[in-house]
Fold this protein.
Amino acid sequence: MVEINEELTLKVGHLARLALSEHEVKTFTAQLGMILKYVEQLQEVNVDGVEPMTHPYIDRADLAAPLRKDEAKPFPRDENGKPKVLLHAPEVLFDGFKVPPIL
């Protein structure tokens, strides 16, 4: 296992674009060490013959995933035929939201 030290914690913080204080570095170093010890403990579990689970509802028919029917619905429009979602838009252009140019 990789040894978790403050240098590694600072490196991970840098990669994550985090500015860590000295107190945070000490705290996170200890916490990362505990997390990795737990992962090591999990790796010791014998999982021979256990099928990988891709979804929690796949293997149990009595717990089928509650999915609704996929239906296309017309977009709500006002009395002028314009989309209602644009009623509170700051600016509208060609029946859509006007946004600043990006190029």
Q: What stands out?
A: The domain at 6-43 is CATH 1.10.20 (Histone, subunit A).
